[in-house]
Design goal:
Blueprint (H helix, E strand, L loop, with lengths): L1 H22 L14 H10 L3 H17 L2 H14 L4 H13 L3 H11 L2 H9 L5 H18 L4 H14 L6 E4 L6 H10 L8 H8 L4 E7 L9 E8 L7 H4 L13 E9 L10 H15 L5 E4 L1 E2 L3 H10 L8 H7 L11 H20 L11 H8 L3 E6 L6 H7 L3 E5 L5 H11 L6 H4 L8 H9 L1 H9 L9
Parallel strand pairs: 4-5
Antiparallel strand pairs: 1-2, 2-3, 3-4, 6-8, 7-8
Helix pairs in contact: 1-3, 2-3, 3-8, 5-6, 7-9, 15-21, 16-21, 16-22
Amino acid sequence: MNATASFFGDMLQTITERGRRFLALGPRGANASDGDDMEALCETLLSSRGEASGMALARDILERWQRCDDAAKRQFMRMLLLRFGPQTELVEKAIDAYRSAPNPKALHELHVAAEPRRQELIRRLNLAPNGTAMLVGMREALLTLKRAEPDLEPLDSDFAHLFGSWFNRGFLMLKPINWSTPADILEKIIRYEAVHHIGGWEELRRRLAPEDRRCFAFFHPQLIDDPLVFVEVALTRDMPARISDLLREDRATVPPAEATTAVFYSISNCQAGLRGISFGNFLIKQVVEDLRRELPGLDSFVTLSPVPGFAEWLDEERRAENPSVLAPTGQNKLTLLDEADWAERAEAVAEVQPVMTAAAAWYFLKARSESGRVIDPVARFHLGNGARLERINFLGDTAPGAMRQAHGLMVNYLYKLDDIETNHEAFVGRGEVVAAPSIRRLMPAERGTAVQAQTEKGPARGKAAKKTRADEEASS
């Protein structure tokens, strides 16, 4: 595959250089300064009919873009938004034609007229050698700009529309990542890991080399040495509650033939410019199928996932005059969270645990954003894929970042193959969170009732809650 990609890359490079000579462009567009009118070059590219000249122009525009400073990149984006949208006159004519004769041909012509010209421009820029990677980088810059200038959304929608086609499942290649994978890709795994930091090569070896560890990544033919998303998997005998059980140096290795559970403990998206283009759902389902073929003894597929939105939501509940879930007793217990060392003190843990697990059940099952969505992004991902919320794990991850984001909370999502489609339809169609009975039993019947009852029972209730701890995993 790499040899084929290299062959086509060399061929495209040759065609592009011929086009450069035809257009009298220097090796990096040296016949014009970086301050030249990019709009004119883009118009020329759109009107170009020659393959070699078009590829040369595309490369020249993208190379100029990469040399631009932030202000020039912003100017370029606004130029695409304002100057390369749909041609209003053509749209109006197509609308009139459709009203006069509403037939499929007229509707197709209206569709063509309504497409922004920048979509075709982006398609042509993609013809340049390494064009796909540079366009992904361009969208990454656009997403940063869009935070301050939301009116750039139509331009971002065009990028997302095209990327959704270029990076669909049919083009993606699933590859195992192991200790024999080329070093340049392994370096990227270290760099892109977004859930549980990898401190260096030795730590990476502990995640890839043992026989009870697996890692898989999706690649694209145009980004052959750069993963799009990867998942780290632990083979275990049961469902884990703490990330330390999977990552500590002195853990006992499980022979794969004895493993019954595959644990997806880290899913990391690698390309910021592909944000919103979903790969993880395909990745998990493909990996499940591959692992089932390799290890027929596996009968449980779960995650150990982070809860990145929980701490912020809980803090808002604590500040609210009329919180959704916290009774006054629970409010008082949670003041312990303001003490830096609370998780290291047994008495504080016993006080906080029943309040927090009950609040977490409410957070997943009842709390919603202003738009009516489940608040937690990781929950939306796994529940949308058809998983079941299986267990809430108190202090599942005590790393500083996890304590800030979720007060150490993690959860397990269960992928039960026979129920995936039903769970998916329940979540997507009715907004229903499919959860294990043990989680539903934590739910307050009315505002604050169950939480207060649990806190009044004290440490005994804490022990019961400990039996149903659920930790969550991070994905993107």
